[in-house]
Amino acid sequence: MTEPQQEKDKIIRFAQQKFFSEGFYKTTMDEISHELQISKKTIYKFFPSKEKLVEEITDCMLYDTNCEIETITDSDENVVMKFVRILNQHLNTVSKFSSRWYKDLQLHTPHIWQKMDKMRDEKIIRVARKLLDQGKREKLIEHYPSEIIVASFIATFREVMNPDFILANKFSMHQALKYTFELLLNGILTRQGKEEYIKTKENFEKELGK
Q: CATH no. for residue 189?
């Protein structure tokens, strides 16, 4: 990796951690420069504005998430294990985010928020269809119309994973995602699928505890 790329990655990693935990609207480039002990000129060499820095951080996060999801969906595991792994991957991701980060995106960079919304919906459509087909073949998912299941997933996540809803109901993003995911999943699992889900969760928790 070249020195300029190392410098750029250092800025992204630091700003990512700061923005995710504190939000970005009230964070200045002066603060980032001071805390990283680098000049603002160096930051602006890679990111002409704070908004461009936010956009690149978001793109990196979305790319990493998509790569992890693709690895899970392409594995040879049964559909219940894939759903459990996807849930835990998302829980690990959202645990890094404060509601302030989401709120700042929604209020101050609506085009980035809309981009995230669009990519989330596209990911749900692509991944859910693939997993639903697999689950029906394995007799672990009920034979409900996939179109209705996918539309329900999208509508529910769009409503619940919303900063206004989260703040108004005093949930954490982690809680909201976990409850929503489990509610939706239990609604489409067959009896065999629910038994497999209970067993898989127990085994997965043991695996994480090692």
A: 1.10.357.10
Q: How far apart are CA 72 and CA 83, in angstroms?
A: 9
In a domain, 40, yes or no: no
* Position 83 in a domain: yes
For the beta carbon of residue 50, count every other beta carbon within 10 angstroms. Answer: 20
38 located within any domain: no
Q: How far is residue 172's CA from residue 152's CA, in Å, rounded to a whole number?
A: 22
A 10 A CB-CB count for 16 gives 20
* Residue range 150-199, pLDDT digits in tens: 999 999 988 988 888 888 898 888 899 999 999 999 999 999 999 999 99
At 185, list the tokens: 């999943």
Q: Please report, as a single letter, which amino acid is at residue 62.
A: L
What is the value of pTM for the model shown? 0.87
Q: CA 37, CA 117: separation in Å to the nearest integer?
A: 35
Q: What is the DSSP letter of 169?
A: T
- The pLDDT mean for the chain works out to 91
Task: Say how many domains are in the chain.
Answer: 1
- Locate tokens 């898989």: which residue? 200
Angle between helices 3-22 and 29-36 (to 10 degrees): 120
CA distance 17 to 53: 13
